[in-house]
Every structure is written in C-alpha cells, then in structure tokens.
Amino acid sequence: MKVYFNTMKFLSRSFHRIEKYFKQYAPKEIKWVDSLEDADFIIEQLVGSNPDLLSKLNIGKPYAIIFNGGIRDGLAEYFKNAEWVFSFLPVENEGFEGKFILSPLGVDGSIFKRIEGINKDINIVTTGYVAYSEGIDSVIMANTKYNGNLVHMGGDLIHDLKRPVETIGGVTRVEGITDNELIHLYNRARYVSGLRRTEGFELPVIEGLLCGARPICFDSPIYRRWFDGLVTFIPELDDKDELAGKILEVFNGPYNPVLPSEQEYVRNHFSWEKISQSFWNGLKI
Q: Which of 205, 280, 269 is nearest to 43 (CA)?
C-alpha cells in the first residue's frame, strides 16, 4: 500500500511531530510516497477551512483525516467521504457517519523528561501566533504584574498584540530551537500555557508535564476529558484583563510541582506508540 501523508509546510513543529510518529509506528507493509499521483491512500492533517485541500480530497482516492482542532465550520465537507477520521475533538455533530476515533495525541517519553537539579528561573512558557485566541496577551499582563520571566516560542509578530513580543519587559522570544533546547526550557519553567479559546490539541501541555512544568488550561469539557487532574484549570473569560487576573491568582498561589506518578501516567496514557497504533488498527488498510 502506497500512502501519501500530507502536512502543509507552513504548519508549526507540532503538526510535523504528529506526522513523524504516525509514520514511525505505521505497519511495515506501507510504502510512503511524496505525491498524490503515486498514492493508493491519502492521509491529511486538517486545520480549519482549506478549499485547496478539499479539491485534492475529491480526486477519487480513499483518504483519512487527522483533525487536531481549530476552525470547525464546514467540517462535514471534509469528513463525509473519509475512510477514517482521527480527532482530538468530538465530531458527532459535524455530519460525519463513518469510522471515527476520538483520541488525544502523544508525547515521546524517551525525549521529554525531567532534568534533575535544574533551576526553575522561568515563570511560564507560551506558544502561538494570535494573542487573544491563544491567551498570550493575558498571560503577558499577568506575568508583568508578577514580575516573572516569560519565554514565548514562536514568531515575532503576534496578531493583535500590536508590538513585537520581545519588546515587553520580562519577555524573551525564541524560534526554531532544537528539541534539546525545548526540553531545557520546559524544565526551567514553573508553568506552560495551554490556553486556547479555539480548542485544539496542545502538545506543550503533555511535553511540559514530562519536563516538570505545570500546564494552565481553560476549563472546557475536552480539556477535562484529556487532562483532568494534571493541569491547573481557569475559567475562559472573554475580558483579557479579567483573564489576566485569574492567571495572576495562579502565579501568586501555592505552586504544585509535577509528581513522578503524574509523569508516569502521561508516559503511559499519551504514548505515541499506543496512539499511532490505534489509528492504524482502526484504518486497516
């Protein structure tokens, strides 16, 4: 079986990490090809609306969708002819009646791990490109009042923040770092932000946990489903100043270090090997 796995190049490292592990644990009989034309089967990662992708999926070849969150309008058009939909979010109400698995995504416990004796000199690590929807503006406001160190991973120009992030006091920006550098950042951090107003799977949540950083997430049903008992939940307030106040309460409150038992749970429950195999076992191609 010749399979084409498409992850658009402009997508963040997280999506390319997903492709890496789904390929790593694929059945041995699968042959990976680099074009739609050469493929017997297509796997696409879907993030929001993409008319070009929709036209590609209508070429008559069987395909599967990996849906990680984001814009949910019009999903039925992508799902309706899919052989298999693998999703972090429920899709029962999206007009899809085919084969479906609701699943978290994973973490590589052989890479992401705690470094003993490292100093926690970073208050929180943030990621993303949109200040409001990813809570970046409120986290920065809370961190400024806390007088802590914040490291933002991502591009310089964050939509609707109105100024380069590294010009804000207490904020350092990094981009294009290695996994080893990322692991050190997580280990140095007290918290990692998993705040997303548009729900989607946040790899920094479980990567941070394995490195000893406590995630902060909005209290939504899907995050409760995957992360209950592992993260600090706060209400999803629309007003960014009120939200900053809730984040500041977390910073000023008692810090709960990540326990070895929690990390063991994450390694087992969010194993890339188990999760990838559940995809391939259900697909049966």
A: 280
CA quadruple 146, 149, 153, 154: dihedral sign:
positive
206-224: per-residue pLDDT in tens? 999 999 999 999 999 989 9
> By C-alpha distance, which of 191, 186, 189, 195 is closest to 136?
195
pTM of the complete model: 0.89
Spatial CB neighbours of 88, under 8 Å, sequence gap ≥ 6: 67, 68, 69, 102, 103, 104, 105, 200, 201, 222, 226
List, in sequence order, every beta strand (DSSP E) within the chain.
Answer: 2-6, 31-32, 41-46, 63-67, 84-87, 100-102, 122-127, 150-153, 171-174, 189-193, 214-218, 232-234
Q: Long-range contacts for 25-31 (Cβ within 8 Å, ≥24 apart)?
A: 25/272, 25/273, 25/276, 25/277, 25/280, 26/276, 26/280, 27/280, 29/1, 30/1, 30/2, 30/3, 30/285, 31/1, 31/2, 31/3
Kindly tell me the sign of the dihedral angle through the C-alpha atoms of 213, 216, 222, 224. Answer: positive
Query: Quick one: average pLDDT of 124-146?
Result: 89
Tally of residues, the chain? 285
